Amino acid sequence: MDHGMELQGKLPRAGTTIFSVMSKLAAEHGAINLGQGFPDFPIDPVLGELVAAAIRKGHNQYAPMPGILPLREAIAAKAERLYGHAYDPGDEVTITAGATQAIFTVFAAVVRPGDEVVLIDPSYDSYAPGVELFGGTPVHVQLGADMAFDAEAVRRAITPRTKLLLINTPHNPAGRILRDADMCALAELLRGTDILLLSDEVYEHIVFDGVAHASAMRHPELRRRSFITFSFGKTFHVTGWKVGYVLAPRPMTAEFRKAHQFNVFSVNTPVQHALAEYLREPGHYQALAGFFQAKRDRLVAGLRRSRMRPLPCEGSYFLLADYRAVSDLPDLEFAQWMTREHGVATIPLSPFYRHPPPGQRLVRFCFAKQDATLDAATEKLCKI
Ligand code: PMP
Ligand code: GLN
Prior knowledge:
Blueprint: H1 18-29, E1 32-33, H2 45-56, H3 69-83, E2 93-96, H4 98-110, E3 116-121, H5 127-133, E4 137-142, H6 151-157, E5 162-168, H7 180-190, E6 196-200, H8 220-223, E7 226-231, H9 232-235, E8 244-247, H10 250-261, H11 269-278, H12 283-286, H13 288-304, E9 309-310, E10 318-322, H14 331-342, E11 344-345, E12 347-348, E13 362-366, H15 371-382
Parallel strand pairs: 1-11, 3-4, 3-5, 5-6, 6-7
Antiparallel strand pairs: 2-8, 7-8, 9-10, 10-13, 12-13
Helix pairs in contact: 1-14, 2-11, 3-11, 4-10, 13-15
Protein backbone atom coordinates (compact mmCIF):
# COMPACT_ATOMS: atom_id res chain seq x y z
CA MET A 1 0.00 0.00 0.00
CA ASP A 2 1.30 3.49 -0.88
CA HIS A 3 1.35 5.67 2.24
CA GLY A 4 2.69 8.74 0.43
CA MET A 5 6.12 10.27 0.28
CA GLU A 6 8.37 10.49 3.31
CA LEU A 7 9.57 14.03 4.00
CA GLN A 8 12.74 15.16 5.61
CA GLY A 9 10.97 17.26 8.24
CA LYS A 10 11.96 20.82 9.04
CA LEU A 11 11.10 20.40 12.71
CA PRO A 12 12.68 17.07 13.66
CA ARG A 13 12.37 17.75 17.41
CA ALA A 14 8.69 18.70 17.34
CA GLY A 15 5.83 16.31 18.00
CA THR A 16 2.19 17.21 18.58
CA THR A 17 1.96 20.13 21.03
CA ILE A 18 1.56 19.21 24.66
CA PHE A 19 -1.72 21.19 24.78
CA SER A 20 -3.35 18.92 22.20
CA VAL A 21 -1.84 15.81 23.78
CA MET A 22 -3.18 16.57 27.26
CA SER A 23 -6.61 17.78 26.08
CA LYS A 24 -7.05 14.56 24.09
CA LEU A 25 -6.03 12.43 27.06
CA ALA A 26 -8.39 14.41 29.32
CA ALA A 27 -11.28 13.80 26.91
CA GLU A 28 -10.48 10.08 26.59
CA HIS A 29 -10.53 9.64 30.36
CA GLY A 30 -13.32 12.07 31.18
CA ALA A 31 -10.85 14.03 33.32
CA ILE A 32 -11.31 17.61 34.52
CA ASN A 33 -9.16 19.61 32.13
CA LEU A 34 -6.98 22.15 33.95
CA GLY A 35 -4.35 21.69 31.22
CA GLN A 36 -4.73 23.61 27.97
CA GLY A 37 -5.41 27.29 28.60
CA PHE A 38 -9.00 28.06 27.74
CA PRO A 39 -12.04 29.14 29.79
CA ASP A 40 -14.88 26.68 30.45
CA PHE A 41 -17.42 29.43 31.15
CA PRO A 42 -19.69 31.21 28.65
CA ILE A 43 -18.72 34.46 26.97
CA ASP A 44 -20.52 37.74 27.54
CA PRO A 45 -23.71 37.41 25.44
CA VAL A 46 -23.32 41.08 24.44
CA LEU A 47 -20.12 40.20 22.59
CA GLY A 48 -21.76 37.24 20.86
CA GLU A 49 -24.66 39.48 19.80
CA LEU A 50 -22.25 42.03 18.36
CA VAL A 51 -20.73 39.35 16.11
CA ALA A 52 -24.17 38.18 15.00
CA ALA A 53 -25.17 41.77 14.29
CA ALA A 54 -22.00 42.38 12.25
CA ILE A 55 -22.80 39.31 10.14
CA ARG A 56 -26.39 40.49 9.65
CA LYS A 57 -25.14 43.92 8.63
CA GLY A 58 -23.14 42.27 5.86
CA HIS A 59 -19.58 42.55 7.22
CA ASN A 60 -18.69 39.24 5.64
CA GLN A 61 -16.01 39.92 3.03
CA TYR A 62 -12.26 40.43 3.34
CA ALA A 63 -11.22 42.99 5.90
CA PRO A 64 -8.46 45.43 4.95
CA MET A 65 -5.05 43.71 5.21
CA PRO A 66 -3.95 45.42 8.48
CA GLY A 67 -7.43 45.09 10.06
CA ILE A 68 -10.49 47.35 10.10
CA LEU A 69 -9.64 50.91 11.07
CA PRO A 70 -12.22 51.27 13.90
CA LEU A 71 -10.66 48.30 15.68
CA ARG A 72 -7.13 49.63 15.18
CA GLU A 73 -8.29 53.00 16.53
CA ALA A 74 -9.93 51.42 19.56
CA ILE A 75 -6.74 49.46 20.28
CA ALA A 76 -4.52 52.54 19.94
CA ALA A 77 -6.82 54.49 22.27
CA LYS A 78 -6.73 51.71 24.85
CA ALA A 79 -2.94 51.41 24.69
CA GLU A 80 -2.55 55.14 25.15
CA ARG A 81 -4.98 55.22 28.07
CA LEU A 82 -3.28 52.33 29.84
CA TYR A 83 0.37 52.70 28.95
CA GLY A 84 0.76 56.32 27.88
CA HIS A 85 1.97 55.91 24.32
CA ALA A 86 -0.05 56.86 21.23
CA TYR A 87 0.60 54.31 18.47
CA ASP A 88 -0.64 55.43 15.07
CA PRO A 89 -3.63 53.22 14.14
CA GLY A 90 -2.78 53.72 10.48
CA ASP A 91 0.80 52.49 10.46
CA GLU A 92 1.59 50.92 13.83
CA VAL A 93 -1.31 48.58 14.70
CA THR A 94 -1.99 45.32 12.84
CA ILE A 95 -4.77 42.82 13.54
CA THR A 96 -3.63 39.19 13.44
CA ALA A 97 -5.13 35.71 13.58
CA GLY A 98 -4.32 35.41 17.28
CA ALA A 99 -1.01 36.11 18.97
CA THR A 100 0.42 32.85 17.59
CA GLN A 101 0.23 34.19 14.06
CA ALA A 102 1.55 37.57 15.18
CA ILE A 103 4.61 35.94 16.76
CA PHE A 104 5.18 33.65 13.78
CA THR A 105 4.92 36.62 11.42
CA VAL A 106 7.51 38.57 13.42
CA PHE A 107 9.89 35.65 12.87
CA ALA A 108 8.96 35.55 9.17
CA ALA A 109 9.64 39.28 8.86
CA VAL A 110 12.96 39.54 10.70
CA VAL A 111 14.74 36.21 11.18
CA ARG A 112 17.33 35.19 8.59
CA PRO A 113 19.38 31.99 8.47
CA GLY A 114 22.15 32.26 11.04
CA ASP A 115 20.38 34.79 13.24
CA GLU A 116 20.16 34.00 16.93
CA VAL A 117 16.96 34.54 18.87
CA VAL A 118 17.21 34.55 22.65
CA LEU A 119 14.35 32.71 24.39
CA ILE A 120 13.86 32.53 28.13
CA ASP A 121 12.82 29.05 29.25
CA PRO A 122 10.34 27.89 30.28
CA SER A 123 9.05 29.43 27.05
CA TYR A 124 5.75 29.14 25.22
CA ASP A 125 5.91 26.19 22.91
CA SER A 126 5.50 27.99 19.57
CA TYR A 127 8.54 30.24 19.96
CA ALA A 128 11.49 27.96 19.21
CA PRO A 129 9.92 26.04 16.28
CA GLY A 130 8.85 29.35 14.72
CA VAL A 131 12.43 30.65 14.86
CA GLU A 132 13.77 27.39 13.39
CA LEU A 133 11.36 27.40 10.46
CA PHE A 134 12.95 30.65 9.26
CA GLY A 135 16.50 29.35 9.67
CA GLY A 136 17.19 31.09 12.97
CA THR A 137 18.89 29.53 15.97
CA PRO A 138 17.01 29.68 19.27
CA VAL A 139 19.39 30.42 22.14
CA HIS A 140 17.79 29.27 25.36
CA VAL A 141 18.43 30.81 28.74
CA GLN A 142 16.45 30.04 31.87
CA LEU A 143 14.49 31.92 34.48
CA GLY A 144 16.24 31.91 37.84
CA ALA A 145 15.27 30.35 41.15
CA ASP A 146 11.49 30.33 41.74
CA MET A 147 11.06 31.40 38.10
CA ALA A 148 12.37 34.92 38.71
CA PHE A 149 13.67 36.95 35.76
CA ASP A 150 17.47 36.86 35.45
CA ALA A 151 18.80 39.77 33.38
CA GLU A 152 22.39 38.55 33.76
CA ALA A 153 21.55 35.22 32.14
CA VAL A 154 20.08 37.15 29.20
CA ARG A 155 23.18 39.34 28.97
CA ARG A 156 25.42 36.26 28.79
CA ALA A 157 23.36 34.84 25.90
CA ILE A 158 23.77 37.89 23.68
CA THR A 159 26.29 37.66 20.85
CA PRO A 160 26.96 39.70 17.69
CA ARG A 161 24.55 37.34 15.90
CA THR A 162 21.61 38.08 18.23
CA LYS A 163 18.74 39.44 16.16
CA LEU A 164 15.84 39.26 18.56
CA LEU A 165 15.07 38.75 22.24
CA LEU A 166 11.70 37.34 23.23
CA ILE A 167 10.08 38.12 26.57
CA ASN A 168 6.64 37.21 27.92
CA THR A 169 4.88 39.04 30.73
CA PRO A 170 2.68 37.97 32.50
CA HIS A 171 4.37 34.68 31.91
CA ASN A 172 2.97 31.44 30.59
CA PRO A 173 3.63 28.93 32.15
CA ALA A 174 5.37 30.45 35.21
CA GLY A 175 2.67 32.95 36.27
CA ARG A 176 5.40 35.51 37.05
CA ILE A 177 5.55 39.11 35.81
CA LEU A 178 8.30 41.49 34.77
CA ARG A 179 8.41 44.75 36.72
CA ASP A 180 9.53 48.24 35.73
CA ALA A 181 12.99 47.52 37.17
CA ASP A 182 13.29 44.43 34.91
CA MET A 183 12.30 46.52 31.90
CA CYS A 184 14.96 49.09 32.82
CA ALA A 185 17.54 46.30 33.12
CA LEU A 186 16.52 45.06 29.67
CA ALA A 187 16.77 48.54 28.20
CA GLU A 188 20.23 48.91 29.65
CA LEU A 189 21.27 45.55 28.30
CA LEU A 190 20.06 46.29 24.76
CA ARG A 191 21.33 49.88 24.65
CA GLY A 192 23.76 50.47 21.79
CA THR A 193 22.73 47.25 19.96
CA ASP A 194 20.39 46.62 17.00
CA ILE A 195 18.67 43.79 18.80
CA LEU A 196 14.90 43.73 18.38
CA LEU A 197 12.52 42.84 21.19
CA LEU A 198 9.39 40.73 20.87
CA SER A 199 7.31 41.28 24.00
CA ASP A 200 4.47 38.78 24.26
CA GLU A 201 1.87 40.45 26.48
CA VAL A 202 -1.24 38.37 25.81
CA TYR A 203 -2.11 38.36 29.53
CA GLU A 204 -1.71 42.15 29.92
CA HIS A 205 -4.98 42.51 31.86
CA ILE A 206 -4.39 39.57 34.16
CA VAL A 207 -1.95 40.99 36.73
CA PHE A 208 -2.78 40.46 40.40
CA ASP A 209 -2.50 42.12 43.80
CA GLY A 210 -2.91 45.67 42.52
CA VAL A 211 0.30 45.67 40.46
CA ALA A 212 0.26 47.54 37.13
CA HIS A 213 1.29 45.70 33.98
CA ALA A 214 4.82 46.79 32.97
CA SER A 215 4.34 46.84 29.22
CA ALA A 216 7.43 47.24 27.05
CA MET A 217 5.67 50.19 25.44
CA ARG A 218 5.94 52.20 28.68
CA HIS A 219 9.68 52.32 28.20
CA PRO A 220 10.71 54.52 25.23
CA GLU A 221 14.06 52.78 24.69
CA LEU A 222 12.37 49.40 24.52
CA ARG A 223 9.34 50.57 22.56
CA ARG A 224 11.42 51.79 19.62
CA ARG A 225 12.76 48.25 19.09
CA SER A 226 9.67 46.25 20.09
CA PHE A 227 6.99 44.19 18.48
CA ILE A 228 4.36 43.75 21.21
CA THR A 229 1.76 41.00 20.80
CA PHE A 230 -1.73 40.68 22.30
CA SER A 231 -4.67 38.27 22.13
CA PHE A 232 -8.41 38.95 22.32
CA GLY A 233 -8.79 35.24 22.98
CA LYS A 234 -7.25 35.75 26.43
CA THR A 235 -8.91 39.06 27.20
CA PHE A 236 -12.51 38.27 26.24
CA HIS A 237 -12.59 34.49 26.91
CA VAL A 238 -12.78 33.67 23.19
CA THR A 239 -9.65 31.60 22.51
CA GLY A 240 -11.42 29.90 19.60
CA TRP A 241 -11.89 33.15 17.69
CA LYS A 242 -8.13 33.50 17.14
CA VAL A 243 -7.90 37.28 16.88
CA GLY A 244 -5.02 39.31 18.28
CA TYR A 245 -2.79 42.18 17.28
CA VAL A 246 0.73 43.53 17.17
CA LEU A 247 1.95 47.03 18.00
CA ALA A 248 5.27 48.23 16.59
CA PRO A 249 6.85 51.47 15.37
CA ARG A 250 6.14 52.41 11.76
CA PRO A 251 9.21 50.94 9.98
CA MET A 252 8.92 47.69 11.91
CA THR A 253 5.17 47.46 11.21
CA ALA A 254 5.87 48.01 7.51
CA GLU A 255 8.13 44.94 7.45
CA PHE A 256 5.68 42.97 9.56
CA ARG A 257 2.86 43.70 7.13
CA LYS A 258 4.91 42.58 4.15
CA ALA A 259 5.04 39.12 5.68
CA HIS A 260 1.51 39.27 7.14
CA GLN A 261 -0.13 40.00 3.77
CA PHE A 262 1.26 36.76 2.32
CA ASN A 263 0.56 34.75 5.41
CA VAL A 264 -3.14 35.27 6.21
CA PHE A 265 -3.68 38.54 4.33
CA SER A 266 -6.48 39.58 6.69
CA VAL A 267 -8.49 38.38 9.67
CA ASN A 268 -12.15 37.45 10.36
CA THR A 269 -14.22 40.54 9.49
CA PRO A 270 -17.40 40.31 11.63
CA VAL A 271 -15.38 39.50 14.73
CA GLN A 272 -13.25 42.61 14.16
CA HIS A 273 -16.38 44.78 13.97
CA ALA A 274 -17.72 43.27 17.16
CA LEU A 275 -14.43 43.75 19.02
CA ALA A 276 -14.17 47.38 17.90
CA GLU A 277 -17.56 48.06 19.46
CA TYR A 278 -16.95 45.99 22.61
CA LEU A 279 -13.58 47.61 23.33
CA ARG A 280 -15.23 50.99 23.76
CA GLU A 281 -16.30 49.97 27.26
CA PRO A 282 -13.15 49.77 29.48
CA GLY A 283 -15.09 47.81 32.08
CA HIS A 284 -14.92 44.83 29.73
CA TYR A 285 -11.21 44.36 30.42
CA GLN A 286 -10.70 46.25 33.69
CA ALA A 287 -12.66 43.63 35.61
CA LEU A 288 -10.41 40.84 34.44
CA ALA A 289 -7.65 41.01 37.08
CA GLY A 290 -10.10 40.82 39.98
CA PHE A 291 -12.11 38.08 38.30
CA PHE A 292 -9.06 35.86 37.80
CA GLN A 293 -7.44 36.77 41.11
CA ALA A 294 -10.41 35.24 42.93
CA LYS A 295 -9.94 32.07 40.86
CA ARG A 296 -6.21 31.99 41.57
CA ASP A 297 -6.92 32.29 45.29
CA ARG A 298 -9.52 29.54 45.10
CA LEU A 299 -7.13 27.15 43.36
CA VAL A 300 -4.26 28.01 45.74
CA ALA A 301 -6.50 27.38 48.76
CA GLY A 302 -7.57 24.05 47.26
CA LEU A 303 -4.01 23.00 46.46
CA ARG A 304 -2.86 23.92 49.96
CA ARG A 305 -5.21 21.24 51.27
CA SER A 306 -3.47 18.72 49.03
CA ARG A 307 0.13 17.51 49.05
CA MET A 308 0.98 19.69 46.08
CA ARG A 309 2.77 22.98 46.70
CA PRO A 310 1.62 25.98 44.65
CA LEU A 311 4.31 28.43 43.49
CA PRO A 312 3.75 32.21 43.59
CA CYS A 313 1.45 33.42 40.80
CA GLU A 314 1.51 37.14 39.99
CA GLY A 315 -0.33 37.11 36.68
CA SER A 316 -1.70 35.10 33.70
CA TYR A 317 -4.27 32.36 34.33
CA PHE A 318 -1.70 29.68 35.05
CA LEU A 319 -0.19 28.46 38.26
CA LEU A 320 2.66 26.04 38.82
CA ALA A 321 2.62 23.41 41.52
CA ASP A 322 5.41 21.24 42.85
CA TYR A 323 4.30 17.64 43.22
CA ARG A 324 7.41 16.02 44.66
CA ALA A 325 5.60 15.19 47.93
CA VAL A 326 3.15 13.11 45.87
CA SER A 327 5.35 11.36 43.35
CA ASP A 328 8.84 11.11 41.92
CA LEU A 329 7.63 10.45 38.37
CA PRO A 330 9.00 12.75 35.63
CA ASP A 331 6.49 15.50 34.83
CA LEU A 332 5.00 14.11 31.59
CA GLU A 333 4.43 10.69 33.15
CA PHE A 334 3.04 12.32 36.28
CA ALA A 335 0.58 14.46 34.28
CA GLN A 336 -0.54 11.40 32.30
CA TRP A 337 -0.92 9.35 35.45
CA MET A 338 -2.95 12.08 37.17
CA THR A 339 -5.22 12.35 34.16
CA ARG A 340 -5.79 8.61 33.84
CA GLU A 341 -5.91 7.57 37.48
CA HIS A 342 -7.14 10.66 39.29
CA GLY A 343 -9.22 12.48 36.68
CA VAL A 344 -7.37 15.83 36.62
CA ALA A 345 -5.40 16.97 33.58
CA THR A 346 -2.51 19.46 33.87
CA ILE A 347 0.41 20.46 31.65
CA PRO A 348 3.92 19.17 32.42
CA LEU A 349 6.68 21.79 32.36
CA SER A 350 9.46 20.03 30.46
CA PRO A 351 8.00 20.75 26.96
CA PHE A 352 8.62 24.45 27.70
CA TYR A 353 12.38 23.86 27.95
CA ARG A 354 15.21 23.03 25.56
CA HIS A 355 17.01 21.48 28.54
CA PRO A 356 14.50 20.73 31.30
CA PRO A 357 16.14 21.14 34.73
CA PRO A 358 16.84 17.61 35.96
CA GLY A 359 14.71 16.65 38.92
CA GLN A 360 12.24 19.52 38.48
CA ARG A 361 8.80 18.28 39.49
CA LEU A 362 6.32 20.90 38.32
CA VAL A 363 2.99 20.88 36.50
CA ARG A 364 0.93 23.83 35.29
CA PHE A 365 -2.71 24.36 36.26
CA CYS A 366 -5.06 26.61 34.27
CA PHE A 367 -7.55 28.38 36.54
CA ALA A 368 -9.66 30.03 33.81
CA LYS A 369 -12.46 27.72 34.95
CA GLN A 370 -15.78 27.89 36.72
CA ASP A 371 -15.48 27.75 40.50
CA ALA A 372 -17.29 24.40 40.48
CA THR A 373 -14.67 23.00 38.07
CA LEU A 374 -11.81 24.21 40.29
CA ASP A 375 -13.48 22.81 43.40
CA ALA A 376 -14.15 19.43 41.80
CA ALA A 377 -10.52 19.24 40.68
CA THR A 378 -9.01 20.15 44.06
CA GLU A 379 -11.32 17.69 45.79
CA LYS A 380 -9.79 14.95 43.64
CA LEU A 381 -6.25 16.26 44.20
CA CYS A 382 -6.70 16.17 47.97
CA LYS A 383 -7.25 12.41 47.76
CA ILE A 384 -3.90 11.70 46.09
N1 PMP B 1 1.61 33.64 23.81
C1 PMP B 1 1.32 33.09 24.99
C2 PMP B 1 2.24 33.32 26.13
C3 PMP B 1 0.20 32.29 25.14
O1 PMP B 1 -0.07 31.73 26.31
C4 PMP B 1 -0.63 32.07 24.03
C5 PMP B 1 -1.77 31.13 24.18
N2 PMP B 1 -2.90 31.68 24.13
C6 PMP B 1 -0.33 32.71 22.83
C7 PMP B 1 0.81 33.46 22.75
C8 PMP B 1 -1.18 32.54 21.61
O2 PMP B 1 -2.33 33.31 21.65
P1 PMP B 1 -3.52 33.09 20.58
O3 PMP B 1 -4.39 32.05 21.15
O4 PMP B 1 -4.15 34.42 20.48
O5 PMP B 1 -2.86 32.66 19.31
N1 GLN C 1 -2.00 29.19 25.15
C1 GLN C 1 -2.69 28.02 25.59
C2 GLN C 1 -1.93 27.37 26.72
O1 GLN C 1 -0.85 27.75 27.06
C3 GLN C 1 -2.88 26.96 24.55
C4 GLN C 1 -2.90 27.37 23.14
C5 GLN C 1 -2.77 26.15 22.28
O2 GLN C 1 -3.34 25.13 22.57
N2 GLN C 1 -1.99 26.26 21.28
O3 GLN C 1 -2.42 26.42 27.24
